[in-house]
Backbone:
């Protein structure tokens, strides 16, 4: 099983991007899906997650700006990012957590700059 993330890029402050992450194979019992991000010279940090019951959680800094969603039939998790700020610049990694293990995507770069 591989996770492929897409949708990153360069955007101006205040702009929007939509990240998507799709599993190449079937992931049985995908409980939690979500995103972390890693800024240059910083540790990877939690951004958002969504449970199998569609309960969501966000880091405080993105609340009201980011929205996470999932499509279980397509094994896809998405992150709609609005009102982007320079401090959102990072490599974004998707993950899928099951009872057996956690799968990670390779990451997609998001750069917010004028």
Residues:
């Amino acid at each position: 099983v591989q996770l492929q993330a897409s949708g990153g890029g360069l955007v101006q402050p205040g702009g929007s991007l939509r990240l998507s992450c799709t599993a190449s194979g079937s992931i049985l019992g995908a409980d939690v899906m979500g995103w972390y991000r890693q800024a240059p010279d910083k540790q990877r940090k939690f951004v958002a997650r969504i449970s199998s019951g569609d309960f969501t959680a966000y880091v405080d800094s993105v609340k009201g700006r980011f929205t996470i969603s999932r499509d279980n039939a397509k094994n896809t998790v998405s992150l709609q990012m609005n009102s982007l700020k320079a401090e959102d610049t990072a490599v974004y990694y998707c993950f899928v957590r099951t009872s057996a293990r956690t799968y990670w995507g390779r990451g997609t770069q998001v750069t917010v700059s004028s």
Observations:
- The CA atoms of residues 39 and 95 lie 17 Å apart.
